[in-house]
């Protein structure tokens, strides 16, 4: 790697640390988190399939945008779909120059139809300001919570089981019907309500069929299945960080299962305890007060905050 690129990464190292999804877990090795999700990821970024670098010349040195093409999303949405990881630039780069470069990057993506999004930690405020100045829109504000007392968690137990493969279509229907106007798909007019519903339905169905490690549903006599919670054990990250944990990746609760969000999350913590996991993570929108109440009742702590921005044709 050239000296210029290395200097750009070093200039951004303090902010890149906050790109770790586990930054709130203070017992985890900070150096290892930088290597996996921050400076180390930036150094090896373009070596991965479908990962690219877009460079814009600037009086204060080059400004580089690291982004990837998402093949599955591109196929599903019928338009090239990209995710921006971050931008690298010198400390002395003015906000106006960074915003100008962001406009050039957006023009470089422009095709008859395209979509690009990014999730940035709120600590990276200058880049967030530059992208919004360049016409990117904020489509979701996220909060990440974590439970760090899994081994001592004591709570009432609730009857749950794994969703069966033959229930994938039903789980998909629950996800589509439990519309959340504040998630990034429903909050962004580029998708439209029907396409956003269809995407979440496809995701939920895939979760049941093996994309996630387990999908929990109620198993109480006389109670219909009108809710679910999908869990990922994050095995690769756990191995690299030397710490077992899991994440709630998608959940939906409809009227017939009112009150089951807390029950499903509580059983997720019980599951983590049985698997000797140290943490359970859960991300939600900053508007989702019902989830806040669940977090308060079950002992979750706030670990971080991020913003999802998007641009399109």
Low-confidence stretches: none
Can you tell me the CATH class of the largest domain? Alpha Beta
Strand order of the largest sheet: 1-2-3-4-11-5-10-9-8-7-6
> What is the SS-derived class?
alpha+beta
Mean pLDDT: 96
Please give a structural write-up:
The mean pLDDT is about 95. This protein has 13 helices and eleven strands. The radius of gyration is 20 Å and the shape is globular. The chain folds into two domains: about 130 residues, Aminopeptidase, CATH 3.40.630; about 160 residues, Aminopeptidase. Helix 12 links the parallel strand 9 and strand 10. About 40% of the residues lie in helices and about 25% in strands. With about 325 residues, the protein is of the alpha+beta class. Strands 1-2-3-4-11-5-10-9-8-7-6 form an eleven-stranded mixed beta sheet.
């Amino acid at each position: 790697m050239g000296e210029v690129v290395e200097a750009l990464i070093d200039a951004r190292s303090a902010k890149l640390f906050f790109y770790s999804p586990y930054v709130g877990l203070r017992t985890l090795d900070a150096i290892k988190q930088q290597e996996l999700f921050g400076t180390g990821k930036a150094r090896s970024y373009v070596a991965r399939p479908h990962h690219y670098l877009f460079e814009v010349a600037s009086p204060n040195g080059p400004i580089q945008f690291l982004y990837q093409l998402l093949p599955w999303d591109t196929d599903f949405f019928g338009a090239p779909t990209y995710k921006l990881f971050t931008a690298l630039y010198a400390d002395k780069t003015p906000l106006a120059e960074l915003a100008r470069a962001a406009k050039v990057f957006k023009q470089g993506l422009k095709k008859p139809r395209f979509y690009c999004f990014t999730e940035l930690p709120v600590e990276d405020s200058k880049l967030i300001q530059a992208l919004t100045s360049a016409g990117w829109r904020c489509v979701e504000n996220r909060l990440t919570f974590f439970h760090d007392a899994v081994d001592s968690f004591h709570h009432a137990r609730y009857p749950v089981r794994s969703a069966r493969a033959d229930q994938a279509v039903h789980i998909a229907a629950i996800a589509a019907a439990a519309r959340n106007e504040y998630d990034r798909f429903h909050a962004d007019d580029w998708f439209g309500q029907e396409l956003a519903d269809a995407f979440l339905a496809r995701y939920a169905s895939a979760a049941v069929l093996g994309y996630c490690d387990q999908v929990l549903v109620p198993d109480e006599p006389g109670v219909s299945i009108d809710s679910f919670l999908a869990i990922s054990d994050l095995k690769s990250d756990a191995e690299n960080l030397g710490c077992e944990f899991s994440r709630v990746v998608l959940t939906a609760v409809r009227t017939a299962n009112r009150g089951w969000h807390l029950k499903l999350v509580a059983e997720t913590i019980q599951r983590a305890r049985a698997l000797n996991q140290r943490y359970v993570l859960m991300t939600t929108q900053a508007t989702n007060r019902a989830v806040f109440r669940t977090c308060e009742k079950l002992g979750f702590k706030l670990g971080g905050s991020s913003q999802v921005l998007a641009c399109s044709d």
